[in-house]
Amino acid sequence: MVDTDTFLTTLYVMVDDFCKLSWPPEHHPGPQATLSRSEVVTLAIFGQWQGFGSERGFYRYARRHLRAAFPQLPSREQRNRQVRQHLETLVAFVRHLVPLLAAQRCLYEARDSAGVPTRAAKRRGAGWLPGLADIGWSNRLGWYEGFHLLLAVNPVGVITGFGFGPASTKDQPLADTFFALRRHPHPQVPSVGGPARGPYVVDKGFEGKANQARWWQTDGAEVIWPPKRKSKTPWPKALRRWLAGVRQIVETVYDKLFHTFRLDRERPHDLSGFWARLAAKIALHNFCIWLNEQLGRPLLAFTDIVDW
Question: Whole-model pTM?
Answer without folding.
Answer: 0.93
